[in-house]
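Field log, afternoon session.

UNIT: design team B
ACTIVITY: writing a sequence onto a fixed backbone
BACKBONE:
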């Protein structure tokens, strides 16, 4: 096979161009510090960098969620601690009120409690990041406010018991709020089970003592009537000390449906919200009734009640204030209500602290993962500068030698043409 001058020239030019491209590539890598400029430089390395970059992006998302949540939780803790300080101040005043030497200062104590009440109401309506801290999942209105007659405080939010969750890891969703119902509202739980084998028409009744804001006693009566398989009709009524219903209309009725497989409560009036509010403003009764713990089992029906507190703190303080203005000392039940509220605040401060600790641990984990991923990307992308400089010198040497060799072996006419 004859090798022509044209073939020699073409091969020479191709080799020269490749050498120049390698030199330019090495120069860019040394200048930028990046070994991989495009996927073709290292398909495996580029794929690994993309995977690590996605992992860093996810870590950034979780870190942002955690940072916002920690701000919210810190604001929650500050509000809870401020509420506790106000409550401790009230407890001290109530002790002083019982001293007969202060009998002529009841109006002064009433004024102090009124000021504390306003401070606590403001704390209960605290906002963080545009959200009401104790408003549950309702951010459209302040959680608490005075009634139209100005005589008591009532819940204004639609869902005070709602819980807020954020994604803090691929398989972790963390609750970040202490809802207002847990702290300020009276919550009465219906506990126990209904017999799955009961016949249609069977009735299960239960009764429990409840208290209004002034400490007056009432009876909460509930009646469960089986209307179909896994379905019950719940009627409830509140009876005062004279045996009269506090509701103007007939007792309220709700339809409960249980899961046929595991016996858990499936819906109340077609909804999955198993907590509803019961209120009688004229009698200063306002509490949440929870059915979450009620189930249907293959056992004899047995239902009972459990309450987190007798009276809500706001209307208890209003009753104490008004009684003091009338020269009446606080009752034991009212004093106990203040003390119990302080205990509940301590529990919630501890709960918020535990959540903060968990979130801080997760934050540290994501920061470490992000740092490790960044180190791996750096190792994948970084250029070994000393080695790259040696390679560049070798390539330049080879290029210069190619020029010299070509000057000797290629026809002069070709070189002139080049």
């Amino acid at each position: 096979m004859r090798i022509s001058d044209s073939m020699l020239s073409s091969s020479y030019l191709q080799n020269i161009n490749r050498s120049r491209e390698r030199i330019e590539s090495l120069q860019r890598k040394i200048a930028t510090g990046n070994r991989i400029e495009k996927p073709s430089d290292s398909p495996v390395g580029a794929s690994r960098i993309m995977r690590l970059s996605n992992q860093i992006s996810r870590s950034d998302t979780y870190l942002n969620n955690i940072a916002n949540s920690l701000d919210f939780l810190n604001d929650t803790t500050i509000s809870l601690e401020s509420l506790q300080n106000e409550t401790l101040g009230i407890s001290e005043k109530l002790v002083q009120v019982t001293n007969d030497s202060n009998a002529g200062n009841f109006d002064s104590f009433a004024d102090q409690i009124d000021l504390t009440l306003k401070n606590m109401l403001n704390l209960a309506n605290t906002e963080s990041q545009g959200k009401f801290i104790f408003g549950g999942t309702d951010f459209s209105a302040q959680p608490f406010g005075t009634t139209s007659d100005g005589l008591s405080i009532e819940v204004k939010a639609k869902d005070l018991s709602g819980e807020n969750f954020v994604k803090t890891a691929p398989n972790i969703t963390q609750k970040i709020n202490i809802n207002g119902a847990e702290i300020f509202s009276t919550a009465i739980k219906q506990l126990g089970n209904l017999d799955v084998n009961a016949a249609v028409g069977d009735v299960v009744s239960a009764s429990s003592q409840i208290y209004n804001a002034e400490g007056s006693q009432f009876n909460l009566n509930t009646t469960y009537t089986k209307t179909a398989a896994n379905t019950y009709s719940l009627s409830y009524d509140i009876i005062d000390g004279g045996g009269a219903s506090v509701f103007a209309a007939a007792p309220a009725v709700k339809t409960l449906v249980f899961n046929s497989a595991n016996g858990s409560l499936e819906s109340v009036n077609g909804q999955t919200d198993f907590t509803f509010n019961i209120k009688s403003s004229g009698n200063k009764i306002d509490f949440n009734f929870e059915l979450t713990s009620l189930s249907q089992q293959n056992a004899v029906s047995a239902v009972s009640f459990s309450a987190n507190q007798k009276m809500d703190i706001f209307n208890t303080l209003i009753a104490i204030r008004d009684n003091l203005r009338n020269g009446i000392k606080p009752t034991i039940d009212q004093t106990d209500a203040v003390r119990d509220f302080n205990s509940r605040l301590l529990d919630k401060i501890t709960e918020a602290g535990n959540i903060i600790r968990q979130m801080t641990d997760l934050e540290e984990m994501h920061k470490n993962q992000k740092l490790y991923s960044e180190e791996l990307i750096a190792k994948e992308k970084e250029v070994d500068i000393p080695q790259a400089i040696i390679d560049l010198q070798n390539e330049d040497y080879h290029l210069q030698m190619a020029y010299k060799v070509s000057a000797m072996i290629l026809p002069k006419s070709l070189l002139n043409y080049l």
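LOG NOTE: DSSP finds eight helices and 16 strands in the chain.
NEXT ACTIVITY: expression trials, pending approval
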